[in-house]
Amino acid sequence: AQWGKASPDFNQVSGELTIEADQLEEQRLLSRLSDNPNLRQFINQSRMAESQIALAKAEAKNYWRLNAGVRRFEEDNDYAATFGLRIPLGNTNRNQGTISTLRAEQFAYDANADALHLDLRIQLSQLIASYTRYQLAQSNFNQSLIPQLKQAVQAARKAYQSGAYSYQEWQSVQQELLDTQVALLDVQYRAQLNRIELERISGLALSN
User: Fold this and answer.
1) Helix, strand, coil content of the chain in percent (nearest 5)
2) In the structure, how many helices (H) and strands (E) does the chain have?
3) Which of 57, 78, 132, 191 has the highest count of CB atoms within 10 angstroms of its CB?
4) How confident is the model at residue 61, as a pLDDT?
5) Closest Cα to residue 57, out of 120, 100, 119?
6) pTM of this prediction?
């Protein structure tokens, strides 16, 4: 659905779940929030309302208009110069209702844009913090927990072979390593979902 297709034209996909070690540039991501499509829509609507307000004000102005021309009289085949002065009468507050309505709409668009921008900033900060935690968790798995468990598995295998460990004890250590590796995969998977959401909100393609 994301690619606009009803069915895939491939049999399998491959990828790498490893989390990037580089720190995310929060200020760079925050600076791109104005390009968020939902936020941009409110901004464009506000600008359109501003243009409509300017037009309504222009139409409401009372202009004195002077015109001149030449008039031909058919009866005596004569010509005469003509001058005209138009002085608009009526209420000078014309279009005030329209202008007030447009200003209210513009205020609503601006308020919605401000609220959405704040919400996006909060979401972005939370996502960056979450991704940082995933980075730390992956580092802890790869540099501490899994190496230690691999050594424990080797030691348990030797102990089993020498008769110091039962098969169940050896298997228990192996299962602990497997569970830890699965936990690492889960952290990496959640980090990738987190990364996708960061890209969606900021509109930036984060480096791989």
Assistant:
1) 65, 10, 25
2) 5, 2
3) 191
4) 65
5) 100
6) 0.63
CA dist., res. 123 & res. 119, Å (int): 6
Q: What is the pLDDT of residue 205?
A: 67
d(CA 5, CA 7): 6
Per-residue pLDDT reduced to its tens digit, 126-183? 998 998 999 999 999 999 999 999 999 999 999 999 988 898 998 999 999 999 999 9
Residue 23 is given by DSSP the state P
Task: Look at 23-27, 45-49, 75-79, 99-103 and tell me which has the smallest mean pLDDT.
Answer: 75-79
3-class state of residue 77 by DSSP: coil
Mark 91-115 as b/e (b = at least 16 C-beta within 10 Å). Answer: eeeebeebbeebeebbeebbebbee
CA contacts within 13 A on the Cβ side of 141: 21
The answer to whether 49 and 106 have CB atoms below 8 angstroms apart is yes
CB of 173 closer than 8 Å to CB of 156: yes
